[in-house]
């Protein structure tokens, strides 16, 4: 989790312009997120291990499918970020940027859209948007499965 948090900070810093974009560092961070999420993340919380001194909640054992889905979703998005770095060796490209009206941060303000929610294909949306979706997964998982929300 600590490595994931560091990696997320690295990527956030580059999107926000606080750190110079560096494709290698961006990719390394995305790869850290990819390899530490999914099954690796799930394996950190084996059944019956939660409670006690950690802030991981018993809900992990009660809703394992939901927990796993969040862990795997982070992995899918991190893989897309990693691929985005390959296509942008020299700098953040325009099509990595979130544009007004493409959803992203705004969509949560507008609330849920009517009808069945269509899963966005992370390879077809800007990397910056993918990154924000990933942060939502961190928050969603912590909100439900961690006693101290991040
Ligand atoms: C599938 C669920 C899940 C996802 C997704 C998830 N986390 Fe966590 N995270 C947890 C749990 C559970 C804990 C509590 C761990 C403990 O206390 O043992 C935690 C703890 C943390 C901590 C506290 C330090 C620690 O090691 O306990 C940080 C920082 C953190 N997560 C960052 C992130 C970031 C950044 C992301 C997204 C890139 C993320 N997490 C995604 C479940 C998740």
Topology summary:
Layout: H1 2-15, H2 23-36, H3 38-43, H4 59-62, H5 64-87, H6 105-110, H7 127-145
Helix pairs in contact: 1-2, 2-5, 5-7
The structure holds heme C.
Structural class: mainly alpha
Mean pLDDT: 88
Proportion of residues in β-strands: under 5%
Radius of gyration: 16 Å
For the record, the CATH architecture stands as Up-down Bundle
The succession of helices and strands, N to C, reads HHHHHHH
How many DSSP H or I helices?
Answer: 7
CATH-assigned fold name:
Four Helix Bundle (Hemerythrin (Met), subunit A)
Give the oligomer, counting copies of the same chain as homo and different chains as hetero.
single chain
Low-confidence stretches: 104-110
CATH class category: Mainly Alpha
């Amino acid at each position: 989790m600590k490595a994931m948090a560091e990696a997320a900070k690295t990527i956030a810093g580059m999107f926000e312009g606080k750190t110079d974009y560096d494709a290698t560092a961006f990719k390394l961070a995305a790869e850290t997120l990819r390899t530490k999420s999914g099954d690796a993340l799930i394996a950190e919380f084996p059944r019956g291990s939660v409670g006690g001194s950690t802030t991981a909640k018993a809900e992990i054992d009660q809703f394992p499918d939901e927990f796993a889905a969040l862990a795997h979703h982070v992995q899918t998005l991190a893989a897309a970020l990693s691929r985005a770095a390959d296509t942008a060796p020299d700098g953040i490209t325009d099509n990595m940027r979130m544009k007004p009206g493409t959803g992203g941060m705004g969509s949560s303000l507008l609330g849920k859209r009517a009808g069945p929610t269509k899963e966005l294909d992370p390879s077809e949306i800007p990397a910056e948007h993918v990154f924000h979706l990933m942060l939502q997964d961190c928050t969603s998982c912590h909100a439900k499965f961690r006693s101290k929300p991040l």
